[in-house]
Specification:
Layout lengths: L22 H13 L4 E4 L2 E4 L12 H8 L12 H13 L20 H21 L6 H22 L4 E6 L5 E7 L6 H4 L9 H9 L2 H7 L8 H4 L11 H14 L4 H18 L3 E5 L2 E7 L5 H8 L3 H9 E5 L5 E5 L1
Antiparallel strand pairs: 1-2, 3-4, 5-6, 7-8
Helix pairs in contact: 3-4, 4-5, 5-10, 7-10, 11-12
Protein name: Myosin motor domain-containing protein
GO molecular function: actin filament binding; ATP binding; microfilament motor activity
Keywords: Actin-binding, ATP-binding, Motor protein, Myosin, Nucleotide-binding
Length: 339
């Protein structure tokens, strides 16, 4: 039987220090810490994070954190915080026993747990650490390399706007600990969220941002209306988020895409695809023949020609793909069956 231990009453910053740990005291200490805005708790090398759903003043003060931890050794970096994880990975890469060995930080959790925000703060911290390393390694050609590294850092941080829900960013460093590149890995793309968002959750932010941020002429060109007119944006019963300005976020997204080299044509094509997805979400189907329900077609009110135009395909081809199931048999034969 799992019983009580006096250590269960202590608000441990690292719950590995707790004796006779089991679920009840674990939840208790996390709850007590949460009530005093201590949302981060270590369990050895793993950081537990609880989304506070509010802003906590000075929680992400990078300069203050660096000043407090500057004289500490790796083994002393035990203040439970995202920055502790980022600093440990950065120091291990530059100074640890496995110097120059690639480091990974895994951010995982349920939808709404705060993974995106955590990733943003980690990226910002690593960018600052990289900049400080750059400033401490002044030498021949310093001005040119500094400009290059600053550009890379800016691109890495701006990529958060574009990759928020769609990928993982992998940062590359040189021997002096300065950012020298970045590569992107697609990771856990939640395709089902588009067609079936969870109750009380929004679809991908970009849909709402686009509808709030495009000007009247652009909305008219794409034939877009308010978000509450689209099935994909209303099925989760959540359209707006308190404290979130979708129009301002869309402005930030466009600025990021401009600086990252997205051409105007590429951005326009991206918004066309997003618009087509919203319109397809509202599409309905009817039988080809009233007495024959084995084959269907788009209902007359579906703007098939417009959707096809947005996607750059022929309307007939789009309808065929949307109403036909294609199966490849074990012998390589291809079967087409009307839905």
């Amino acid at each position: 039987m799992l019983g009580f231990d006096p250590s269960h009453l202590v608000d441990h910053a690292d719950i590995a220090q707790m004796n006779n740990m089991h679920e009840a005291p674990l939840m208790s200490v996390l709850h007590r810490r949460y009530l005093i805005d201590a949302i981060y708790t270590f369990t050895t090398d793993i950081l537990i994070s609880i989304n506070p759903y509010k802003s906590i003043p000075m929680l992400y003060d990078i300069a203050g954190f660096m000043a407090a931890s500057k004289a500490k050794l790796d083994c002393e970096l035990k203040s439970p915080h995202l920055f502790s994880i980022a600093e440990k990975a950065y120091r291990d890469m530059r100074l640890g026993k496995q110097r120059d060995t690639a480091q990974s930080i895994v951010v995982s959790g349920e939808s709404g747990a705060g993974k995106t925000e955590a990733s943003k703060h980690i990226m910002k911290y690593l960018a600052v650490a990289s900049r400080q390393a750059d400033e401490s390694s002044k030498g021949v050609g310093h001005a040119a390399t500094t400009s290059l590294h600053e550009k890379i850092e800016e691109c890495v941080l701006l990529s958060n706007f574009v990759l928020e829900s769609f990928g993982n960013a992998k940062i590359l460093y040189d021997q002096d600990g300065r950012m020298c590149g970045v590569s992107i890995k697609h990771f856990l793309l939640e395709k089902t969220r588009i067609v079936l968002p969870e109750t009380n959750e929004r679809n991908y932010h970009v849909f709402y941002q686009m509808l709030a941020g495009l000007d009247a002429l652009e909305l008219a060109e794409l034939e877009l209306v308010a978000p509450d007119e689209y099935e994909y944006l209303t099925s989760g019963n959540c359209i707006g988020i308190d404290g979130v300005d979708d129009a301002a976020d869309f402005c930030g997204l466009r600025t990021a895409m401009d600086k990252l080299g997205f051409t105007s044509a590429t951005q326009r094509e991206l918004f066309q695809v997003l618009a087509a997805i919203l319109k397809l979400g509202n599409a309905s189907f009817v039988p080809v023949h009233p007495q024959d329900r084995e084959a269907c077609q788009f209902a007359p009110e579906v703007p098939l020609e417009k959707i096809a135009q947005l996607l750059g395909v022929q309307a007939a081809d789009l309808e065929q793909k949307m109403t036909t199931q294609t199966t490849v048999t074990g012998r390589g034969s291809i079967l087409h069956m009307k839905l």
